[in-house]
TrEMBL record, chain A:
CDD domains: eIF3G (cd12933), RRM_eIF3G_like (cd12408). The gene is LOC106458136. This is Eukaryotic translation initiation factor 3 subunit G. Residues 193-208 have a biased composition (Basic and acidic residues). SMART domains: RRM (SM00360).
UniProtKB/TrEMBL annotation, chain B:
The keyword NAD does not apply. It comes from the Eukaryota. Signal peptide: none annotated. This is Eukaryotic translation initiation factor 3 subunit I. WD repeats lie at residues 6-37, 48-89, 184-225, 281-311. HAMAP family: eIF3i (MF_03008). It is found in: Cytoplasm. Component of the eukaryotic translation initiation factor 3 (eIF-3) complex, which is involved in protein synthesis of a specialized repertoire of mRNAs and, together with other initiation factors, stimulates binding of mRNA and methionyl-tRNAi to the 40S ribosome. The eIF-3 complex specifically targets and initiates translation of a subset of mRNAs involved in cell proliferation. InterPro entries: eIF3i, WD40/YVTN_repeat-like_dom_sf, WD40_repeat_CS, WD40_repeat_dom_sf, WD40_rpt. Belongs to the eIF-3 subunit I family. Belongs to the WD repeat STRAP family.
Length: 293, 325
């Protein structure tokens, strides 16, 4: 390495800097009860650094034997160390604090706080009848008890809202179009249809995706048949995919339901989303087309 | 607090110990040179050069004139503290696991590992007898048949030696006859460390079974248990307050194979009587292998698998802290 270095001609500017490399000698001075040690060195980035260390000089009264030991000569590998701590061996590390645990008074206070905040608020709201009680205590809680009216009445506002959201789906493309109109440059990868590769390749999949809903927060014990029972009332189902653990065979907590008709899927979302099933609250939404994640 | 970082070892610390006055701190590690430091400012007084193997144990006598070290190079060495020169080397059949001066300083004991056809044994030598300085004619030799001795300390009045074993046994050996006086098994795992209370009326054990236990020295009665969720490598009792400090952590060999959950390497403070944890100090980057309280109780040190010894001087909050029950 050194030979290679010497062969390469360093630039003129570098040479000048190197010539200036002689650093001021370290100095030490004692002021009152503090000792100040000033050193100069070049750090990793090649910059000169002034290091000032402050030591507090303390005088302590100790027993004779301890005082005598303080005067002993250093030995072994410390033989050549100067008096006082050698910075290579002894470092004062960063300030740390002892964490005190289980201060019971504090615990009690924190326990109280959240309750105080909730006082005077309506804490509980039934998801079925919107009354002031837990869903499990709802008189209409029986399986899909509240749903039949929803199914019968196609003008149900919930259902309308659901279809409205489907109409507003694919917002990303509309945004892109807006951008195009605004005259901004849109890279081809962001343009409409950028992630649509071959029309024929995806078409079958697209059709599936359109009427597919994703059900999450299912319990472990859910079986395909349970899902069938749950979603059959909404319409004809083309396919049910329940993600299962390969080893245990338990459900992984989510499933995809392909309906034949998109309206059925929309109704299923409106009906079952937020529905309590097996002590868990189901989350039902449109499945995102695969490959868009 | 701003701990002093003592970086004199290249490998994991195996044991640290204060002398009686607490002005010196001794440390030994799996590298071959034990160190001695001034505990007040972290200045290194010297190193004891000569061992050719991991040094497992270190002790200093009552008046801080001699130091004994036991190492895996099958030797136990006695050093002059003032000059760092070796006084004698006692050769053993096996690696020396722990060693110690008796209170009088006239006798030493060390324990050896079990291997190469030799059983794990306790040896006692009289330093006054010339021959025994060379490792011949031990005053007492006792074999622990079956399970290895992993830690040992002198009992009060130099009458017996307490050893902790691989299977969690605690044994009391008569120094004169070499007979077992008492044997109890309270731990389910290796006893990594034994440390006396300042008046030797009780001692604390640190075990791989994730607990530390307090015992009455005279009767071996199990008094208290301090539970953690990782192996305990070392435990010490505060000389001034009803506190114990536990150091430990996942075993070094398991650190890379288990999930990297931080916060297992902190020193943990328990109340001596109520057995409840009340504080933690987190600063080592690996398991703590040895902890020791300063004899004045105002600071403590810990030596870790990371090769650093850290000297912590307690802040006022520690002294103001009152345990509530």
């Amino acid at each position: 390495m050194p030979s290679a270095d010497s062969e390469i001609k360093s630039s003129w500017a570098d040479q000048v800097e190197q010539d200036e490399d002689d650093l001021p000698p370290p100095s030490e001075c004692i002021e009152g009860d503090t000792k100040v040690v000033t050193e100069y060195k070049v750090n990793d980035e090649g910059k000169k650094v002034k290091v000032v260390r402050y030591y507090k000089i303390e005088h302590r009264k100790v027993s004779k034997t301890v005082a005598k030991r303080k005067t002993w000569k250093k030995f072994g590998e410390a033989r050549n160390d100067p008096p006082g701590p050698n910075p290579t061996n002894t470092v004062v590390s960063e300030e740390i604090f002892m964490q005190f645990l289980s201060n019971k008074e504090e615990e009690r206070q924190t326990d109280d706080d959240p309750l105080n905040k909730l006082k005077g608020q309506k804490i509980v709201k039934c998801r079925i009848c919107k009354d002031d009680h837990w869903t499990t205590q709802c008189p209409f809680k029986d399986k899909l008890g509240a749903l039949p009216d929803l199914l019968k009445d196609d003008t149900n506002p919930g259902f309308l809202a659901a279809t409205a959201t489907t109409a507003a789906a694919t917002p990303s493309t509309s945004q892109v179009e807006d951008k195009m109109k605004a005259g901004k440059y849109v890279p081809p990868s962001m343009r409409e249809g950028a992630n649509r590769r071959g029309e024929s390749m995806v078409s079958s999949r697209n059709r599936d995706d359109a009427a597919t809903i994703r059900v999450t927060n299912l319990s472990e014990d859910v079986r395909d048949s349970d899902l069938q029972d749950l979603f059959r009332p909404f319409g004809n189902i083309a396919r049910i995919y329940l993600a299962k653990d390969k080893v245990t065979g338990h459900s992984k907590g989510f499933a995809f339901i392909n309906f034949l008709r998109r309206e059925d899927a929309a109704r299923a979302i409106a009906g079952v989303n937020g529905f309590g099933y097996d002590n868990l609250i189901l989350n039902v939404e449109w499945a995102k087309p695969s490959g868009t994640s | 607090m701003k701990p002093l970082l003592l970086h004199g070892h290249e490998r994991a610390i195996t044991q640290i110990k204060y002398n009686r006055e607490g002005d010196l701190l001794f440390s030994c590690a799996k590298d071959h040179t034990p160190n001695v430091w001034f505990s007040l400012n972290g200045e290194r007084l010297g190193t004891f050069n000569g061992h050719n193997g991991a040094v497992w144990g270190i002790d200093v006598n009552w008046d801080s004139t001699r130091v004994i070290t036991g190492a895996a190079d099958n030797t136990c060495r006695i050093w002059d503290l003032e000059t760092g020169t070796e006084i004698t080397t006692i050769s053993t059949e096996n690696a020396v696991r722990s060693c110690g001066f008796s209170y009088s300083g006239k006798q030493i004991m060390y324990t050896t590992d079990k291997s190469m056809g030799f059983e794990s044994s306790v040896y006692v030598f009289d330093l006054e007898a010339g021959k025994q300085l060379l490792g011949e004619d031990s005053l007492m030799k006792a074999q622990s048949s079956g399970n290895k001795i992993t830690s040992a300390i002198w009992g009060p009045l130099d009458e017996y030696i307490i050893t902790g074993h691989e299977n969690g046994d605690l044994v009391k050996w008569d120094v004169l006859t070499g007979n077992q006086i008492q044997r109890v098994q309270e731990h389910k795992g290796t006893i990594n460390d034994l440390q006396h209370y300042k008046d030797q009326s009780m001692f604390i054990t640190a075990s791989k079974d994730k607990t530390a236990k307090l015992f009455d020295t005279a009767t071996f009665e199990h008094l208290k248990t301090y539970k953690t969720e990782r192996p305990v490598n070392s435990a010490a009792i505060s000389p001034i307050r009803d506190h114990v400090v536990l150091g430990g952590g996942q075993e070094a060999m398991d650190v890379t194979t288990t999930s990297a959950r931080a916060g297992k390497f902190d020193a943990r403070f328990f109340h001596l009587v109520f057995e409840d944890e009340f504080g933690r100090v987190k600063d080592h980057f690996g398991p703590i292998n040895s902890v020791a309280f300063h004899p004045d109780g105002k600071s403590y040190s810990s030596g870790g698998e990371d090769g650093y010894v850290r000297v912590h001087v307690f802040d006022p909050p520690y002294f103001d802290f009152l345990f509530e029950c």
